[in-house]
Known about the structure:
This protein is an alpha+beta fold. Helices cover about 45% and strands about 15% of the residues. It is built from 12 helices and 6 strands. Strands 1, 2, 3, 4, 5 and 6 form a 6-stranded antiparallel beta sheet that branches. A hairpin with a 7-residue loop joins strand 1 (about 185-190) and strand 2. The radius of gyration is 22 Å and the shape is elongated.
Amino acid sequence: MDRMGVSRALPSIPKDSLSAAIVAISVSTELVEEELKPYLDAVLNVAIERKKGIAHQVAESGILPVLAQILRRKSTLTTHTAKLVAELARDAPVREQCFETGIVSALVTLLLSQDQDLLLHVSQAIARICYDSNLQQERFLRLGVVPRLVSVLLQHSRNEVLLSSCLLALCNLADMGEEDGSMLSWEEGANFGEGERLFHGTSRYSFGLTSAVTVVRLKQWTNGQYSVTVEVLQRCSTTLWGTNIGRQTGHRLQNFPHLGSCPNLYKVIKCSVKNIPRNRNLRAAMFHTLL
């Protein structure tokens, strides 16, 4: 429907066609929400199936700025569109255009919502967009995403799925996470200080012989002010350690050089990222956030 309230003809191509859906979304300002939703569904279904070439087709179609506009409208389609963006963000061609098209800023704004379903899709999208990209990580940090993620995490810590998504987003912002976090299982650990929250994410590889533990530590310094520290620890099972010690007593493990000769089997990597970094390496600072 246009601004004068007059309905216009929809594209004459079949609704189940990805091309038809992209055309319809590109003229979304001329459609009412009920007309637009089936086209968003069509793109979402193809995105979930991860059909070859869809990422390039979407990136080249010009609909990403339109999706950003829909997110800003905060309508009944907002959650649906956030879910679509989160699925599309699995692919690099889409991730690379999320800042220039306005999707990044729209997602950061939506973190102020109280809708937990919406927050889940938004945090998933953020985690995927900034995965393995220092440029996107810095852009999010400059927009103040850290305090908003921490706020969501603290407010909805009983929502395990949302909690996991926010923790993954913080890890990916620190360039210390995974693409989708499906192999991570999070649990809250014991706190050793007042105003501190500790979360452990475990992931197993090589049939359980080696594993990685991601530790996210939230430390409250003053009222509403937190620091966020991300650590990744690599370890192997005691059985595997004993087997290799028997073969290589007194020597560094030849089969597992990444473990070095550290007696407690851990390799610790600390990450410090300022909320608004300037000419800093993302692995050299600590998140400082004001809620």
